[in-house]
């Protein structure tokens, strides 16, 4: 198997568009209800935010997870073989409250859905 | 008049208070958020509990006259005193103290006698909130739960004794007696469940599932380092799986014992199907009747049973052919002078207090004004704590957490060390003194305000706005994060975003500190004052909430 | 660099679910040593590959925003109980580790 080289430029990009352009040569996203992103509403720890992405889109080539307001938004990309099911889960670092976006590449197009994750100072309680 | 059952003293004014007709075949009793108050107390309900967006004017966001009107409760009645702040001082003197485990125990025994086979659920926040619970490492409350006959419990502040202590109590004390359930607590590494998600108990031959929901934001609202390997969260999806699984195992009734807070419970009831009732706590709302929520599976009742052992919820269900057909619900206020003290519980309470009696009963000062905490913004007891921090610690501004526990004192009462501990007894009591820029102060206020007033309850954490001393500000609860707080000033001058201010605080959740505990700071201040009189509250200027039923008429600005 | 990986792989029907935990600092290169004030150099896993019968079923490309001691889970088809699964990682310093496991 031939593995793609680590996409340095995409990981160092400072915006969602430039990261996606660098990674996949495009940044046009089409919203999709065939993607479900799961992440906590409020992060227990901004340094460890569990995120999972599940999609029923056919022939997924890759899934990327982007934290919109991170300095470098691209957190990770997953290249799927034909035998992989449309599901990945990991844990990411988030610098502040932000939308987390799942980008699914299939049939040459990019589909996406997002979820707001709040990163809070904490304290207080009932 | 009807004969009062055993242990309940006859009282002409309210002869029927505890004489509720038996109904149906499945009964569940529920108390929550007692915050370790073993003895009867005064507890003033809030005069500000604002609901915004969909939550405006909906239970639990009703106070005072609005509350009485909504539930058809007669002004000036015993019930009006139990459920609202109205005319608090006079009513408290008329109707006496509320709660106390010895009195609660009598009521539980009476309900049990009338409703054989009924279960007693404890919604959590039981082990924390008093001097003796702190000093006995929760043992006094665990023993009290066993004496009371708790069947099932879930948790929040329990976790602030640390994971090791929680597991020790489960193993040494609760095993085979009390089921500790929490479907939403999992191991941080693999996501494996830590506690039993639910139990199925037979009530009069009807299999009844009790699913636990611990406070979802425990590692955020409280020190995460105390439970480093556990992850919480709301986990709707797993809740749905547990409901379906319990039904699959034959449960005919599914009850969620929740510490979500009422707004979160109401949202959860709309999203998860197959739950007959969510019996909730955390937000300390005493709600006389369930809120009925429709969802894809039918209807779910949502209740919340107040705090400070002031109430016992009794849910009677009529279950036929495997389905709940009808219900009756009563939220019974525990009036200490209408219920005899249970002898065994009294003896237990006396024995746990005995070694600390002298320290507990020290009179630090006398209060000339009503002292209370509960409400969205500063209560008078919070004001006192903030004043004490500014004076004793040499701060310009003081922050005190917006806890919803902490009892009330009437004018003329001494403030004992025990009373002070009802406001401050936690396992991370260290005070802090920091230099903070005006900008940082704004960020903190905005962050906390969003935890209370976010339009989506799943982004709320319960509790109230941080209490402030020194600083004045305005708040628009209806705005979004970053835009709620304005007009910040100190001593009549606008807060400069770039300038540093000396800010005192306590209950830091980030790291264990070895500084002066808050009760030392406040006790020292009170001993010097001898008499206190808090009449002026540092309440923020409220914007865009005129006419909100969560705002008492007397507070309209 | 032995034993940095803990792995669980379970098959149910035609779907194998893989969960892995890796011990790694995942340093961003932006943090400073609190005592010396010097920047801690970036040190993070860049690639994780999972192979079944010589086929790379999933390749993860990671940046420094993946949490310390990373977690990865995914699912794939076409494996049977008892099959061998290989998971390996390589980081920006060229360090690497791998593990083999039998699907349960
Ligand atoms: Mn509570
Ligand atoms: Mn609570």
From TrEMBL, chain C:
Transmembrane segments: none annotated. It comes from the Bacteria. Pfam families: SoxZ. Gene3D superfamilies: Immunoglobulins (2.60.40.10). Residues 8-101 form the Sulphur oxidation protein SoxZ domain. NCBIfam families: SoxZ_true. This is Thiosulfate oxidation carrier complex protein SoxZ. It comes from Thiohalobacter thiocyanaticus.
């Amino acid at each position: 198997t031939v593995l793609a080289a680590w996409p340095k430029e995409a990981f160092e990009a400072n915006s969602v568009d430039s990261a996606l352009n660098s990674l996949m040569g495009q940044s046009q996203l089409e919203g999709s209800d065939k993607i479900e992103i799961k992440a906590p509403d409020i992060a227990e720890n901004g340094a460890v935010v569990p995120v999972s992405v599940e999609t029923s889109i056919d022939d997924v080539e890759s899934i990327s997870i982007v934290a919109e307001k991170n300095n470098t938004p691209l957190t990770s990309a997953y290249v799927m073989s034909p035998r992989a099911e449309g599901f990945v889960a990991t844990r990411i670092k988030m610098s502040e409250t932000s939308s987390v976006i799942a980008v699914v590449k299939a049939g040459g197009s990019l589909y996406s859905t997002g979820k707001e994750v709040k990163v809070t100072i904490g304290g207080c309680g009932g | 008049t009807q004969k009062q059952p055993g242990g309940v003293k006859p009282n002409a004014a309210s002869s029927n208070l505890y004489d509720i007709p038996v109904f149906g075949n499945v009964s569940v009793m529920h108390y929550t958020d007692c915050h370790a108050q073993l003895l009867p107390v005064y507890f003033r309900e809030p005069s500000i509990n604002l609901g915004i967006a969909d939550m405006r004017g909906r239970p639990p966001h009703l106070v005072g006259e609005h509350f009485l009107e909504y539930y058809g409760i007669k002004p000036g009645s015993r019930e009006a005193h139990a459920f609202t702040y109205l005319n608090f001082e006079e009513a408290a003197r008329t109707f006496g103290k509320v709660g106390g485990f010895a009195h609660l125990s009598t009521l539980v025994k009476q309900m049990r006698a009338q409703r054989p086979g009924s279960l007693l659920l404890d919604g959590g926040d039981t082990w924390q909130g008093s001097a003796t619970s702190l000093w006995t490492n929760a043992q006094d409350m665990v023993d009290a739960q066993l004496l009371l006959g708790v069947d099932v419990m879930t948790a929040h502040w329990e976790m602030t004794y640390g994971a090791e202590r929680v597991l020790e109590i489960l193993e040494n004390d609760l095993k085979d007696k009390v089921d500790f359930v929490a479907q939403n607590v999992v191991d941080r590494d693999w996501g494996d469940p830590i506690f039993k998600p639910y139990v199925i108990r037979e009530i009069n031959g009807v299999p009844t599932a009790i699913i636990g929901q611990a406070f979802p934001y425990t590692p955020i609202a409280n020190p995460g380092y105390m439970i480093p390997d556990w992850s919480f969260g709301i986990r709707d999806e797993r809740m749905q799986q547990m409901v379906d699984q319990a039904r699959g195992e034959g449960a005919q009734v599914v009850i969620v014992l929740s510490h979500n807070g009422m707004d979160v419970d109401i949202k959860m009831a709309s999203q998860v199907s197959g739950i007959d009732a969510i019996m909730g706590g955390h937000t300390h709302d005493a709600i006389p009747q369930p809120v009925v929520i429709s969802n894809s599976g039918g209807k779910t009742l949502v209740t919340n049973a107040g705090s400070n052992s002031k109430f016992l919820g009794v849910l009677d269900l009529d279950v036929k052919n495997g389905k709940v057909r009808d219900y009756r619900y009563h939220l019974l206020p525990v009036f200490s002078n209408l219920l005899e003290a249970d002898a065994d519980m009294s003896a237990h309470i006396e024995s746990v207090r005995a070694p600390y009696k002298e320290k507990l009963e020290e009179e630090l000062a006398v209060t000339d004004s009503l002292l209370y905490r509960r409400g969205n913004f500063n209560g008078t007891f919070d004001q006192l704590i903030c004043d004490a921090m500014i004076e004793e610690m040499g701060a310009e501004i003081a922050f005190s957490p917006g806890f919803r526990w902490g009892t009330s004192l009437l004018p003329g009462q001494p403030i004992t060390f025990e009373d002070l501990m009802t406001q401050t007894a936690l396992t991370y009591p260290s005070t802090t003194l920091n230099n903070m820029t005006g900008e940082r102060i704004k960020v903190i206020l905005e962050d906390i305000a969003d935890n209370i007033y976010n339009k989506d309850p799943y982004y709320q954490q319960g509790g109230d706005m941080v209490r402030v001393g020194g600083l004045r500000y305005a708040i628009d609860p209806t705005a979004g994060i970053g835009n709620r707080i304005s007009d910040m000033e100190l001593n009549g001058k606008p807060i400069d975003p770039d300038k540093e201010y000396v800010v005192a605080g306590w209950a830091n959740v980030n790291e264990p500190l070895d500084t002066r505990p808050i009760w030392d700071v406040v006790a020292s201040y009170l001993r010097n004052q001898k008499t206190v009189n808090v009449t002026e509250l540092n309440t923020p200027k409220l914007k865009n909430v005129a006419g909100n039923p969560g705002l008492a008429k007397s507070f309209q600005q | 660099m032995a034993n940095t990986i803990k792995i669980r792989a379970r098959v149910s029907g035609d779907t194998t679910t893989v969960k892995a935990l890796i011990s790694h600092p995942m340093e961003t290169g932006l943090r400073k040593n609190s005592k010396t004030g010097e920047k801690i150099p970036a040190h993070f896993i860049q690639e994780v590959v999972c192979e079944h019968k010589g086929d790379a079923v999933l390749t993860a490309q990671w940046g420094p925003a993946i949490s310390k001691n990373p977690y990865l889970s995914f699912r794939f088809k076409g494996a049977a109980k008892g099959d061998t699964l290989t998971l390996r990682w390589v980081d920006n310093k060229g360090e690497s580790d791998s593990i083999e496991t039998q699907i349960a």
